[in-house]
## 1
Amino acid sequence: MVVAAAAAAALFFILWWMLQAEESPWLPAGLAASVVMLVAAFARLLVARRVSYQQRNAARDVRERSGRRPTLDDVMHSTSRHAAALRALHKQSAAADEQDSAQRHREVYELCGEYLNGAERALQSPGLQADGRVALRGGQERVRELQKHHLLVWARTSAMTLTHEAQQRVRLHEKLETANRALDCIDEALKIYPEDAELTSSAQAVHEFIASSRLAHWVELAERAAFKGYYQRAIDCYRDALYYLQRDTGDPAGNEAAERILGEIDILRARMNAEATTSGSKSDFQVRRRSNPDHL
């Protein structure tokens, strides 16, 4: 502003000297000097606003850097932060066990996976101290146990809930769809822990439910058809039931069910033969009556 004032004064006197022959030379000289001062003041205002904006951004960046949450890598490289994170993970695990919610167990399982990935990256870092490595390896062992526990509980709880939901369904395709979702949960856990006996037994129970649902469906259709007198249709339904029974099961109970179904088929065939014989006798009687009415 001092330079602008000096330039405006110099311009005023130069123009005044050059315009001495004119009337009132100070008027255009003063106007030119005033324009110079206005331009300088406007430029100063723009510069001041830009500096103020940059200062506010710098202060905000400092606050964000000082108050930001530490990343997972920062936590793994700090012994105190790692211990605090491990305690927080154990608390979340205990809370999930108390709530006994499949979704909560799934969330804790995923948190355990994030911890293990971060710990593995930290162990590969050459700058990690020896005491930090020991703490991370101990934490990995404990978190792996938590991860397995919550995945197994999630799989069993989800499978039980979906199987119970499937039992409440009326239509066969809805039962099978819901039961297959239960199998998907169990299979996801079996891919990671294939030796777990409880998961294997749970999968077997769901498979048995699917097989029994198919069998009950076709047996019911056969019984309805037999009740209405459609014996051939009933036999076809019983054969479908035998197909699914032989495909899905191979235990003695399945063999007993197959024997009962075969017995029902024999009964239906006997009824069909009896009706055919009765119908044939009636037809012969009517033919003889029409051919020799005097004799009858």
Note: The mean pLDDT is 81.
## 2
Amino acid sequence: MSMPRIDAHQHFWKIERGDYGWLTPELEPIYRDFRPRDYTPFLEAHAVAGTVLVQAAPTIAETEFLLSLADENPFIKGVVGWVNFTAADAPDRIAALADHPRLVGLRPEIQDFPDGSWILRPEMMPAFEATARHGLTLDALTLPRHLKHLLILLERYPDLRVVIDHGSKPEIRLGQFDGWAQDMRALARQTSAYCKLSGLVTEASENWTVEDLKPYVDHLLAEFGPQRLVWGSDWPVCTLAASYGKWISTVEELLAGLSEAEASRVWHENAVEVYRLEMEG
């Protein structure tokens, strides 16, 4: 398959920066620096026309680090950064960061909060309003338990562009489907949210197969359609369960029923649309 791809979800990190609380030596295969030169072989090998670099630490320093990488590496077409949405100065922070042409979105790491209603706290509303006002996309890093509250948020802010990361991390290894499926159906039908086709292999069992993933991907395709599904690798996190190439071939198999035009939406065009990427250069 030679159609161009946008990798709408990948990471870089530098361990010595010290703000990756989740990245511990127990995650030995990925507990090392990952830099642009580690990714560049994929550009030609897999027809990747550009990437969206997503935050992996909840600090402004992380956002500035990623933007500096985007300045130095033209293949990084956009950065999804982090701002403390509960801080009183969040709107000012967002306004300042939004001046950078490569900042395309923000991700407040909703999954880290056991209380699903956290995103509905009144003190966070100015940050959501500022995100929409500056034309930034909200990456909703949620778990299934957050979805009902995410629906309320999106109904409250219909102008906020949103992409749900990793299909909201369904518990594939436990076979949990029905509740997740119902909530994702509601979001697909009642909001304009997009959904990332990424991060699923690390939610599946160690010896996962394409058939393990198929019911979940088929449901996302049925509800969001090829018009609102966005492919991403979640590299290098995905390498805990699959190589970059293996994830691509898996998605190719899962999307085999789509027309070329529909597949191109998932692989490329939807990412450009939801993140408003500038593809020249």
Note: The chain is about 35% helix and 15% strand.
